[in-house]
Amino acid sequence: YQESFRNIYTSLRFIDVDKPLRKIIITSSIPKEGKSLINILLAKTLADVGLKVLLIDADMRKPQIHTRLGLNNIVGFSNLLVEKDKKLESIIQSVKGVKNLDILSSGRSVPDTTRLLSSQRLKDIIKDIEEKNYYDYVLFDAPPILGLSDASLISNYCDGIVLVVTKNFVNKTLPQESVKRILINSNLIGLITNNKKEITVTDKAGKSVVGTYGYEEYAALGYFDEDKNASSKNLEGNDSLLTKSLSKLRDLKDKFIT
After folding, report:
1. How does DSSP assign the chain, residue by residue?
2. Closest residue by Cα to residue 101 from 35, 44, 26, 37
3. Per-residue pLDDT for the chain (258 aa), expressed as one digit of tens each?
4. Residue 178 and residue 197: Cα distance in Å, rounded?
5. Which end of the chain is more exposed for a tag (fewer CB within 10 A), N or C?
6. 186 SS3 class
7. pTM here?
């Protein structure tokens, strides 16, 4: 996984050489797609290469970052939004054994996150972080994009959104709907596909082979294909489908990652 996250870092670095991406939201279409874990692993990867990183748990509805990292959640992001006398420097936490990484947990539960994220206070906080120029990257772990406005509101002050898509878990219409919503007001940086599935296929000799498939193979199995007859149980002879699916992936890259 380390090499995968280094590749993500490389992609983020070279998407726009004129205006480097520094403030990034990582979210998903629905819960339990692994966005919080991906935020943590990407933050750690960036820190390991010597970059200063601030990871903010902006999911004040169902926060996960502090639990996964064994940190307290007494004060955090919500407190910073509500209490104007609070300073970021006084409430960030560090992770034992990880240099260059600061964590801002979600903070205490609040009744109306939409109102808080619509406030001038959020703009001031992000502007203050940017002007101090202490962090190379600021990552936001935001709630799922579908049904909630949190990620879209935060994106008003960030460089863009990365959408996590968990293969074999979400209906293909959900990421498509998420992309449409993101593109209305935000910059879609790209997609991170998550998870691998073990499958059994039959080779030319009629022998069953067990293996895993990744991004290209997932497309070949119909994730981006509208043909409902495309079946993951019949991979043999699907060269034309693979070619068509890879072409669609290239079109997506050209459309969404500019």
Report:
1. -HHHHHHHHHHHHHS-SSS---EEEEEESSSSSSHHHHHHHHHHHHHHTT--EEEEE---SS--HHHHHT---SS-HHHHHH-TT--HHHH-EE-TT-TTEEEE---S--S-HHHHHTSHHHHHHHHHHHHHT--SEEEEEPPPSTT--HHHHHHTTSSEEEEEEETTTS-THHHHHHHHHHHHHS-EEEEEEE--EEEEEE-TTS-EEEEEE-HHHHHHTTSS---TT--TT--TT-HHHHHHHHHHHHHHHHHH--
2. 44
3. 788 889 999 988 888 767 889 999 999 999 989 999 999 999 999 999 999 999 999 999 999 999 999 999 999 999 999 998 999 999 999 999 999 999 999 999 888 899 999 999 999 999 999 999 999 999 999 999 998 999 999 999 999 999 999 888 888 899 999 999 999 989 999 999 887 655 555 555 666 555 444 433 333 333 333 333 333 333 334 444 445 555 555 565 555 444
4. 23
5. N
6. coil
7. 0.75
